[in-house]
């Protein structure tokens, strides 16, 4: 099925959770990663319970420190 990640179409398996998809991308343990699904921020402790659906819009935002 197709979802959109930062406005780019991406194919994912049916029934995949946000956590498993992020893990497959090597991002599940990344510090400073914020995730929104369909315009709502998803806290890290909810990633495993968020089953992706066709046409979901996922926004990934990396936080950088320093100045």
Task: List the topology elements.
Layout: E1 2-5, E2 8-11, H1 18-24, E3 33-37, E4 40-42, E5 57-62
Parallel strand pairs: 1-5
Antiparallel strand pairs: 1-2, 3-4, 3-5
Can you describe this structure?
The chain has 67 residues and is mainly beta. The chain has one helix at residues 18-24; strands at residues 2-5, 8-11, 33-37, 40-42, 57-62.
Structure characteristics:
five-stranded mixed sheet
Task: Please give a quick description of this structure.
With 67 residues, the protein is mostly beta strands.
Give the end-to-end Cα distance, rounded to a whole number of Å: 40 Å
Q: Approximately how much beta-strand content do the residues carry?
A: 25-35%
Helical fraction: 10-25%
Strand order of the largest sheet: 2-1-5-3-4
Tell me the major beta sheet. 5 strands, mixed
Q: What structural class is derived from the secondary structure elements?
A: mainly beta
Mean pLDDT: 93
Overall form: globular
How do the helices and strands follow one another from N- to C-terminus?
EEHEEE
Output the number of helix runs.
1
The count of β-strands is: 5
Low-confidence stretches: none
Radius of gyration: 12 Å
């Amino acid at each position: 099925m197709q979802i959109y990640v930062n406005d780019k179409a991406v194919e994912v398996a049916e029934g995949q959770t946000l956590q498993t998809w992020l893990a497959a991308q090597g991002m599940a343990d990344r510090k400073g990663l914020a995730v929104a699904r369909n315009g709502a921020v998803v806290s890290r402790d909810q990633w495993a319970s968020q089953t992706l659906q066709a046409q979901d819009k996922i926004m990934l935002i990396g936080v950088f420190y320093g100045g």
